[in-house]
Specification:
The complex is a heterodimer of chains A (487) and B (490). With 487 residues, chain A is of the alpha+beta class. Chain A is 39% helix and 20% strand. In chain A, helix 12 (428-441) crosses helix 15. The radius of gyration of chain A is 29 Å and the shape is elongated. Chain B is α/β, with parallel strands linked by helices and 490 residues long. Helices cover 39% and strands 13% of the residues of chain B. In chain B, helix 4 links the parallel strand 2 and strand 3 (117-122). The longest helix of chain B has 24 residues, at 371-394. The relative contact order of chain B is 0.14. The model of chain B is unreliable at 486-490 (pLDDT under 50). Classes of the chains: A alpha+beta (487), B alpha/beta (490).
């Protein structure tokens, strides 16, 4: 790894393309579905056939508007689509219908911000603009013996609605960029605007990176592309920032260029495409009338916004008494928050729920690489499990043991406990038999405890628990042992 | 007399009275096409078999006395820039040679619903870029009045077909005069509707903010009938107006008494052929005689119209025509490198005028030139529009010649694009302003037809048609037939 020049600040701005959750494409009625056979979700419009005309998907505008409002953007009363002209075979018209930043033809939303937390500290990043556009088709390069023999094109993705969110260069580290993206993804999911999954390409991130000298001079920036996960973003930006620092430290100059992240080699490399100064010849799209958004529409959207992450976090802390860490951990995962709130409705101990979710459950999910809604565990199952603990029917230990199975298979915890004979033993006579056995087998610790060494009791309780295969009620065992040895 | 020479308004009652069957009518056109189209080349493609099948279907329905749609069994010629499902649509270009659209343009869908039969696709300047139909990749169309002369363009094939009785009527498209100018040069009626009145869905784009589909007919009444079938909001074209469609035929009968007509001073100035000036002045006098009030109006920004048009239309065209790259449809020149394939395909597929306009438009949109050219042109366009708005504060219609000259000789202007562009000097401003304009036959100069252009307020086709119809009823220019076969109607 190259050495970091500590006196240079890292400056990062992001461009995020988000695939909108609409039933149909941006400018035609073709369905937006994944995994359909190639070139089956196409029509004259998204194939760019001569004579076909686009018609704006109102739902996509609504979702864009919802996002722009939630990001505190100024909404353009009349925003305009533009044509971005360039030749590429995945682009059936050889222009992309997008939005451009002309003064008299503004994009949907401008000048917003997003609040998020980094290590528990509040941060805000300014949003330059939010605009709508259409996706391109997908090129599939067919190789033989490592050489591309021909290229196939699948236009199913052509015309799928995209929203582009562009930040100001307000991010100061790769970790911060990652946290911002986590927060943005959460927002998009709360808004029901996008699934926001980088791995599936429903959220795509390009980054502009540069270094700023202590005197404020901003270095030349590079654009980094092809990062397919949050981790990749963080690593690619770290690599690129360090690479630039090294170039500068060696007296060199950073070249303005597009660089691709190579996941396998964990490096960025300059893209091989010719770096001509691209002239996209933007001009207002004459086939589409401007999107007119009146105040009433904006107000309707604003009124219908769900509770946003910042509000939710504050409520969890102040009204539910969660710690900031637990609150943030839940809030940043909208599906986890939904799980939490559903469970909370049936089980009012928010802290206990949060502990389980942020502790053992998060542990199992992380190990399996899954999200809460991808497993069989449902809120009522978790509530039942916690109620079994509260009712003294099982120990916390048993509950933890049962968790992986319940997460994987779901089911009724009470039935599972009964079937496996895991019910807690609180019966004094039963426990006394076990305790006698443990004392007999461990005379030294028993003696130590008798002589006043409290720590020995923990060991003995542990032995009883072990002997009972976790079923013994630890509080009762504790009491009986004290009475038996010191009483 | 040959039914092929009758206007549709007279054919429909004969079909209903079963004095004539759709198949007989179709046969009359096919016979004339066989006789004359070898010379005229109005058609690029005649869909005889499909048309015969359709006609037989209408024969039966007429025989059964079914309730029939308004244009049942009436053939129509369609400019080859309008998509017809399964029927070759080339735009007069090598780059689309043999291309069969998988869908019908909205105009075609509406015509089929109304009962019309697609007779064939008509010749045109490549991608509607031209004023003589000489820019067709498949050879020029000739003017039925003098086969050594051009029929005008770009809808020259449609104009020639209607004038020569090779179709009862036709669809044209008009971006800068491409319906009205050939109508004028061929002695027929051509109506460019208000921008947004007729759907452009399936009209292969040249200048998207200017293009309109419209009727090319023998009479004003036919223009009203055909517009009735075409007009209206289309969910597939966001630039169509969601406004009620008036009854255009009903609008024909009002007369011009009390109507205020403004003769555009700029239309009667230098560069106008004397015979054209005389015919237009005479036409104005006829309208005055019918009770219209005449006055002079001025459209000073008309001086900017031509350069404005050649920036706006070409800028849009440079982008619209980018899709012809050999990847998905039409011509492909096979070479291993994709960029090379793009440029070789486009080089082989486009003719010189199309290339000229793509280059002009690309330049006008380029970084550093956008403000000086494209944006400035948009501002000039606003000035042209305001000129008309001011005129319409005082008058109901503006009168202009359709074309400054009668039909010119084949080859006469090919080497001089600027001279060719001047053919549309009086029609282009109307497209820039998005207004409805009609050309009606108003006399002859040197034995060739002259057209009078009437321009109305946006969506005021009824007034345009009313005045044109009153003029037509008072004159017989529209009854003159080209000397093709001695079938001249007296």
């Amino acid at each position: 790894m190259v050495k970091e020049a500590v006196n240079l600040e890292t400056v990062i701005g992001l461009e995020i393309h988000v695939q909108l959750q609409t039933a149909s494409k941006m400018f035609c009625g073709c369905a937006v579905t994944f995994g359909a056979p190639p070139n089956t979700l196409i029509c004259p419009v998204c194939l760019g056939l001569p004579g076909a005309l686009p018609v704006t998907n109102r739902r996509a505008v609504e979702l864009g508007l919802r996002t722009a409002v939630a990001l505190g953007c100024t909404i353009a009363p009349r925003s305009q689509f533009h044509r971005k002209n360039y030749y590429y075979p995945d682009l059936p018209k050889n222009y992309q219908i997008s939005q451009y930043q002309y003064m008299d033809h503004p994009p949907l939303g401008m000048d917003g911000w997003l609040e998020f937390t980094v290590d528990g500290n509040p941060r805000a990043v300014r949003i330059r603009r939010v605009h709508l556009e259409e996706d391109t088709g997908k090129l599939i390069h067919v190789e033989r013996d490592g050489i591309v023999t021909h290229t196939l094109i699948d236009y199913n993705r052509s015309g799928v609605p995209l929203m582009e969110i562009v930040t100001q260069p307000d991010l100061r580290s790769p970790a911060e960029a990652r946290e911002f993206l986590v927060a943005l993804r959460a927002l998009l999911q709360y808004l029901d605007v996008s699934t926001g999954r980088m791995e599936e390409g429903t959220m795509r991130v390009d980054a502009n990176v540069s270094r700023r000298a202590p005197d404020g001079t901003l270095g030349t920036r590079t654009e980094v592309k092809n990062m397919n996960s949050l981790r990749a973003v963080e690593r690619a930006l770290a690599f690129e920032a360090a690479r630039q620092a090294e170039v500068l430290a060696g007296g060199g100059a950073v070249v303005q260029e597009t660089r691709h992240w190579d996941e396998r080699r964990q490096i960025t490399f300059p893209s091989r495409t010719k770096e001509e100064a691209e002239d996209y010849r933007y001009f207002p799209e004459p086939d589409l009338v401007p999107i007119a958004v009146d105040d009433a529409w904006v107000e309707r959207v604003r009124a219908a916004l769900p509770e946003l992450p910042a509000q939710k976090r504050a409520r969890y802390v102040s009204a539910l008494g969660l710690g900031p860490y637990d609150a943030d951990l839940i809030v940043r995962q909208p599906r986890l928050a939904a799980f939490f709130e559903e469970a909370l409705a049936a089980y009012p101990n928010a802290k206990a729920l949060a502990n389980w979710l942020s502790g053992d459950i998060a542990g199992v999910l992380n190990a399996e690489g899954k999200e809460i809604d991808e497993v069989a565990l449902r809120p009522p199952t978790l509530v039942s499990l916690l109620q079994l603990i509260d009712g003294g029917r099982i120990s916390g230990r048993i509950a933890k043991d049962l968790l992986p199975d319940l997460i994987r298979d779901g089911g009724d915890p009470a039935a599972l406990v009964a079937a496996r004979g895991l019910e807690q033993i609180s019966d004094t006579a039963d426990l006394e038999r076990l305790i006698e056995k443990v004392i007999a087998a461990n005379p030294d610790p028993a003696e130590e405890f008798r002589r006043g060494k409290d720590k020995a009791l923990t060991f003995l309780v542990g032995q009883v628990m072990k002997e009972s295969r976790g079923r013994a009620n630890p509080e009762v065992v504790n009491r009986i042992l004290r009475e038996r040895l010191r009483g | 007399m040959d039914p092929a020479l009758l206007p549709v308004s007279e054919l429909l009652p004969r079909l209903r009275r079963r004095e004539l069957s759709p198949s007989e009518l179709l046969a009359a056109y096919l016979t004339r096409i066989t006789a004359h189209d070898g010379t005229l080349r109005a058609y690029l493609h005649v869909d005889a078999e499909a048309a015969r099948t359709e006609a037989r279907r209408w024969d039966e329905r007429y025989a059964r006395g079914d309730d029939l749609p308004p244009l049942a069994g009436i053939p129509i010629a369609v400019k080859d820039i309008i998509c017809t499902r399964g029927v070759v649509t080339t735009c007069g270009s090598r780059i689309l040679e043999g291309w069969r659209p998988p869908y019908d343009a909205t105009a075609m869908v509406r015509l089929r619903h109304a009962g019309a039969i697609l007779l064939g696709k008509t010749n045109m300047d490549e991608f509607a870029m031209g004023s003589s139909t000489e820019n067709s990749a498949f050879g020029p169309t000739r003017n039925p009045w003098d086969v050594e002369r051009v029929p005008g363009g770009s809808s020259g094939g449609s104009a020639a077909a209607v004038a020569a009785g090779l179709a009862p009527w036709a669809l044209g498209t008009d971006t800068g005069g491409s319906i009205r100018q050939p109508a004028s040069l061929c002695g027929i009626v051509g109506l460019k509707p208000t921008y947004g009145r007729v759907s452009r869905y399936g009209l292969i784009a040249y200048g998207s903010s200017l293009d309109q589909i419209g009727p090319m007919t023998r009479t004003v009444e036919d223009a009203a009938l055909l517009l009735q079938a075409l007009a209206g909001w289309d969910p597939l074209d966001s630039t169509t107006a969601d406004l009620p469609v008036p009854d255009y035929t009903e609008a024909l009968s009002g007369g011009v008494r009390g109507l205020r007509l403004g003769i555009a001073r700029e239309g009667m100035g230098e560069g106008l052929q004397p015979g054209v000036r005389a015919a237009v002045q005479q036409a104005a006098a006829v309208l005055e005689g019918l009770g219209a009030h005449l006055e002079e109006v001025t459209l000073p920004a008309i001086d900017y119209a031509l350069p404005t048009y050649y920036l706006v239309a070409t800028a849009e065209a440079s982008s619209n025509l980018a899709r012809y790259d050999g990847v998905r449809h039409g011509l492909r020149v096979e070479v291993p490198d994709i960029v090379e394939m793009f440029s070789r395909t486009r080089d082989a597929g486009f003719g010189p005028e199309v290339k000229r306009r793509i280059m002009l438009g690309t330049y006008a949109l380029s970084a550093g030139f956008y403000e000086a050219f494209y944006l400035k042109a948009q501002r000039a366009r606003t000035l042209v529009r305001r000129d008309f708005e001011r005129a319409f504060e005082r008058v109901d219609l503006v009168l202009l010649p359709t074309s400054p000259t009668v039909a010119f000789r084949l080859g006469e202007r090919v080497a001089d694009p600027l001279q060719m562009y001047l053919a549309d000097i009086f029609t282009i401003p109307v497209n820039l302003a998005g207004l409805p304009g009609i050309s009606v036959p108003c006399g002859f100069a040197d034995g060739l037809p002259v057209g009078l252009q009437l321009v109305g307020r946006a969506f005021d086709e009824p007034t345009v048609l009313r005045a044109a119809s009153a003029y037509e009823r008072a004159t017989d220019w529209h009854r003159r037939r080209p000397p093709l076969d001695g079938a001249r109607v007296s």
